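hiii so um. not sure if this is the right channel but i have a protein structure encoded as tokens and i wanna go backwards to a sequence. like what aa goes where. can anyone help
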């Protein structure tokens, strides 16, 4: 039997995309309408933001552990979190977690290395791109990276937090990401990490100057592979 997947969610749009990917691509792997058992728990994003705004990453970790405990009781056998930013707390979480986790940045780095990419652009919230969530996982694979400039970070963060998490998709937001990715390409990047789980809702290979590494779907696919191993 496939393993039971637990989703520790924070923002709704990214978590919904991850869940949908598990179900749709699960059917492609397992047969019509089939997919592994999936449970999800979501604390209010507002509760996470209270901790993030004051730099309280142990507080973020406590929320994640609360979800982990509830998912363990629901029968989940391993956990994923379709939110890149709160992975900053995962080092605090994993030693105390009742279940093992897949790390989204590790999944993305592994995929990038397999595809032969060498220098990656990193997009996401300002908390994410200023953290060590991706750098340490990329370095372990020998991958270089660059981040948006300060003004670009602030505008991308605004788009994510004021628009994308609410399901608001504007042409101006697409244009902003396209301009940032174009600059990254000119600086020598050969792919771009969509390091916020909502970014794939507006950006893809179809409208990006660089190949995209869709963290949301890559995590879901990694979870499917693990679940199917039983």
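sure thing!! here u go:
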């Amino acid at each position: 039997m496939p393993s039971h997947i637990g989703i520790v969610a924070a923002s709704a749009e990214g978590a919904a995309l991850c869940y949908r990917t598990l179900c749709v691509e699960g059917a492609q792997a397992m047969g019509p309408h089939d997919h592994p058992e999936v449970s999800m728990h979501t604390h209010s994003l507002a509760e996470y933001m209270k901790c993030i705004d004051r730099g309280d990453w142990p507080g973020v970790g406590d929320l994640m552990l609360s979800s982990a405990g509830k998912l363990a009781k629901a029968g989940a056998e391993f956990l994923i979190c379709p939110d890149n930013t709160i992975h900053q707390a995962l080092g605090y979480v994993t030693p105390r977690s009742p279940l093992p986790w897949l790390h989204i940045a590790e999944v993305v780095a592994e995929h990038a290395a397999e595809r032969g990419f060498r220098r990656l652009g990193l997009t996401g919230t300002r908390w994410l791109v200023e953290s060590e969530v991706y750098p340490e996982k990329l370095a372990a694979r020998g991958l270089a990276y660059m981040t948006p400039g300060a003004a670009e970070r602030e505008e991308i963060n605004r788009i994510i937090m004021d628009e994308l998490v609410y399901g608001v998709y504007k042409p101006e937001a697409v244009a902003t990401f396209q301009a940032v990715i174009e600059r990254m390409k000119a600086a020598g990047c050969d792919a771009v990490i969509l390091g916020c789980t909502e970014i794939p809702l507006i950006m893809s290979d179809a409208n990006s100057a660089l190949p995209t590494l869709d963290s949301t779907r890559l995590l879901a696919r990694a979870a499917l592979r693990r679940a199917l191993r039983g």
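oh and The chain has two domains: 5-103+218-229, 104-215.
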